[in-house]
């Protein structure tokens, strides 16, 4: 047995087999085969061996060296192969891992209601038109027969820009813009964002949405308005719902009406939902005021028409029985998910 090789060749081979990395293996290799290593020192020792035994000794040391080299080479290949498999394994997808659920977005409830309402009007032949949210006082008020001193302006307090423009308080200015740019007859549907200086509460927001409908033709009457509204209400709320018109006032329509739809919960009998009346107010409407026609250069002796408008939030609240308009803006995903229609 060589000095320094107490465990024998077997011990050396075991150490080689136990190396866990190429670095480990490099260390072991240095220990046995390096310049300061075991085999080298055994070679140097040959001087101390009696001359007649030197040949035999040299052969044994060489055999030992070859065995160690071979074992190291084999282990090197093994470690390289193991490394390659580990890398491949890391890249290979594991189909048994539970999947990550992808959160799918959806349209906001107001967008959904807007599209639903728009579909109904478009299917009746109304054309979608839009106008600016920053308006002049003329389009928002004066052209709509609402002069500066008019008390109706109190309800439409709004935000003004430094150059004297304002954030529109309703979608009615679009009527004026469209009539100014076209000749009658026409039938338009105009959705959009509106603003008023209102403090938020369960039924008010300073920023909200409206839609406006305007029809101008010869010989239009309240019965056209009522028939059209009846169809709209049934399409939106259900065939069993009825409407009624109550006299009201808007500066830009005459006569003017508040339009109610029969309560869907009690069927018009009166319940808590409709505060006992059996009816729910859905929109404002009326026959276009002759002054409005004059303001856009239409002859009111020839042309007549009806207009109507309302808040989309109000429609959404009635249709989906919401208690607080502010829920629409709270960004509570539990609320929004309840009214989810996935984006197609
Ligand atoms: N613009 C009115 C409002 O905001 C609603 C309306 C539109 C009424 C058209 C009559 C005709 O209150």
From TrEMBL:
EC number per UniProt: 6.1.1.20
Required cofactor(s): Mg(2+)
Cited InterPro entries: aa-tRNA-synth_II, aa-tRNA-synth_II/BPL/LPL, Phe-tRNA-synth_IIc_asu, Phe-tRNA_ligase_II_N, Phe_tRNA_ligase_alpha1_bac, Phenylalanyl-tRNA_Synthase, tRNA-bd_arm
Record-level Gene Ontology MF annotations: ATP binding; magnesium ion binding; phenylalanine-tRNA ligase activity; tRNA binding
Localisation per UniProt entry: Cytoplasm
Catalytic reactions on record: tRNA(Phe) + L-phenylalanine + ATP = L-phenylalanyl-tRNA(Phe) + AMP + diphosphate + H(+)
Residues binding Mg(2+): 254
Gene Ontology cellular component terms for the protein in this record: cytoplasm
GO biological process terms, semicolon-separated: phenylalanyl-tRNA aminoacylation
Taxonomy, superkingdom: Bacteria
Cited PROSITE patterns: AA_TRNA_LIGASE_II
Domain annotation Aminoacyl-transfer RNA synthetases class-II family profile: ranges: 107-338
Coiled coil: 54-88
Enzyme class: ligase
Note describing how the cofactor binds: Binds 2 magnesium ions per tetramer.
Record keywords: Aminoacyl-tRNA synthetase, ATP-binding, Coiled coil, Cytoplasm, Ligase, Magnesium, Metal-binding, Nucleotide-binding, Protein biosynthesis
Membership in a protein family: Belongs to the class-II aminoacyl-tRNA synthetase family. Phe-tRNA synthetase alpha subunit type 1 subfamily.
Subunit-level organization: Tetramer of two alpha and two beta subunits.
Name assigned to this protein: Phenylalanine--tRNA ligase alpha subunit
Organism: Mesotoga infera
Chain's gene name: pheS
């Amino acid at each position: 047995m060589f000095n320094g090789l107490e465990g024998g060749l077997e011990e050396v081979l075991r150490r080689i087999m136990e190396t866990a990395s190429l670095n480990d293996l490099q260390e072991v290799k240095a220990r046995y085969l390096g310049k300061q290593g075991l085999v080298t020192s055994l070679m140097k020792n040959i001087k101390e061996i009696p001359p007649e035994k030197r040949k035999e000794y040299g052969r044994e040391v060489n055999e030992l060296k070859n065995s160690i080299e071979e074992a190291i080479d084999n282990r090197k290949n093994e470690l390289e192969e193991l490394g390659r498999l580990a890398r491949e394994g890391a890249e290979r997808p594991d189909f048994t891992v539970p999947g990550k659920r992808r959160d799918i977005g959806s349209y906001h409830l107001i967008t959904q209601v807007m599209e639903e309402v728009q579909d109904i009007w478009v299917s009746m032949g109304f054309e979608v038109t839009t106008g600016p949210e920053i308006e002049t006082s003329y389009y928002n008020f004066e052209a709509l027969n609402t002069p500066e001193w008019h008390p109706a302006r109190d309800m439409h307090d709004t935000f003004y820009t430094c150059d004297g423009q304002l954030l529109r308080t309703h979608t009615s200015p679009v009527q004026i813009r469209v009539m100014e740019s076209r000749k009658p007859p026409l039938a338009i549907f105009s959705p959009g964002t509106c603003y008023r200086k209102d403090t938020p509460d369960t039924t008010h927001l300073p920023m909200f949405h409206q839609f406006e409908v305007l029809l101008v033709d010869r010989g239009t009457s309240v019965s056209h308005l009522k028939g059209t509204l009846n169809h709209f209400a049934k399409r939106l709320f259900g065939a069993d719902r009825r409407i009624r018109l109550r006299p009201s006032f808007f500066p830009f329509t005459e006569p003017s009406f508040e339009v109610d739809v029969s309560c869907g919960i009690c069927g018009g009998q009166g319940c808590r939902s409709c505060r006992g009346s059996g009816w729910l107010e859905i929109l404002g409407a009326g026959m276009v005021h002759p002054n409005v026609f004059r303001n856009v250069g239409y002859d009111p002796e020839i042309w007549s028409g009806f207009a109507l408008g309302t808040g989309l939030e109000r429609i959404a609240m009635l249709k989906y029985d919401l208690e607080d308009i502010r829920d629409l803006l709270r960004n509570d995903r539990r609320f929004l998910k309840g009214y989810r229609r996935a984006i197609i």
